[in-house]
Each structure stands twice: as C-alpha cells, then as structure tokens.
Amino acid sequence: MSILNGKIEQLLSLAVATVAAGVMPAPMEHDPDRDAALRSLAAVAGQQGWSMEALRAFAGPQADLLFPGGEAELLEAWSDLCDRDMADAMCETDEPRLSGRVRAALLYRLPADEGRRTAAAKGMSLLLTPQGQVVFRRAWMRSVNALWQAAQDDSAGVAYVTKRLTLGNIYALSFLYWLARGQDAAAMAAFVDRQLALVLRFGRFRAKLAAGRSAAPAGAAAL
C-alpha cells in the first residue's frame, strides 16, 4: 500500500504542476444517460471496479456504448460528475468569506461517504497507467477550477493561476488524507481547516513583508 501511495503522490505532484500552465482542458460532454450510468456503476465500483463488464452489469447491456474511451473515460466522466454535484451543493451556501466557501467546496467534493471513497481508491489503480495519468491530470485541473468557481472567485490574470496552484496543493493533500482516513467527517474537516490556516498565515506574512519593503527608507538593505 505504501508503494501505491507513493505513486499516487507522484501523480498528484504532476497534476498540481500542470495547473501552473493555467490552460484548462475542454469541458466534458454532459448527458443524462451517461450520468445515470455513472451513478449506477459508482455505487458499486468500490467492490466491482470500473470495468466495462461491471458497467454493463449494473447500468445496462448497452451502457458501454456511452463511453467509447473505455475505463479511462469512465473515471474522467465520474470526476466531472462529482465536480458538478459539488457545484450544485454549493449553490445553497451563504458563507460570506471566500476561505469559508473554499472550505465548504472541498468538503462537498471529498465527503465522508464510504462508497465514494472506496470507488475513488479503486479508480486510482487504473489512473496510474500512462494513459490514465493524462486523464487524471485533465480531471484534476477541472476539479481545481470547479472548486474555485463554486467558491465564487472571479480572479483573472496571474491571480487566476496562482490561486489555482495554491488550491491544487491543498486539494492534493486533502485528497490523500481522504483516501486514507476520510470516513471520519470531523477529522477530515479539521485537516482541511489546518491546510487553509497555513495558507492564510503565509498570505498575511507575505503582505506584511511587502508592506515592510515599501516602507523601507531609500538605501535600506533588501531581504
């Protein structure tokens, strides 16, 4: 399991680095029949896996025709569906603070749902293949972007990229924690709170540092 965790960490590092490019992949196709098939399979994927055989068994004998890209497309589409479910849930959020909305979005995206968690863990073994890694990076970038959009952040330019890069790191750490111990909702929320607090403290430190530099007298030594 430790070897698998190490591979997942490497994959997450590559995914976060891809966010720095600032170019989002194209949106996925949305179709009610695809969504229904995904929900049917996701409910049992933790035990049955993400194979096309399981898809046909639990979503109908013709369901594989909805996903011509095979298992990799199944997982990419499921990630997109989870993003959309998170965005729908966030419509009910009236949290005034951006940090609070980011927190809520993360916890909606990584719920204390054993079926969701085991399905994700089962899917990671498929996404560690060369083809799967490309799919994972695309799905990861969409998820990070969806989290920011659900949190109602409208940054542009450099801030658009840096905020998504920061959130990408938080989401990666939270995702690893969720896979290992996400069944405990209170512990999961506390972990997310710690990650956000670190970012906020670092942001305040940078602001103070910048203010100190702008107030320094001419000729003062720079840090």
From TrEMBL:
Pfam families for the chain: COQ9
Q: Which organism is it from?
A: Acetobacter vaccinii
UniProt-recorded name of the protein: RpsU-divergently transcribed protein
The lineage's top-level taxon is Bacteria
Locate the COQ9 C-terminal domain: which residues? 140-202
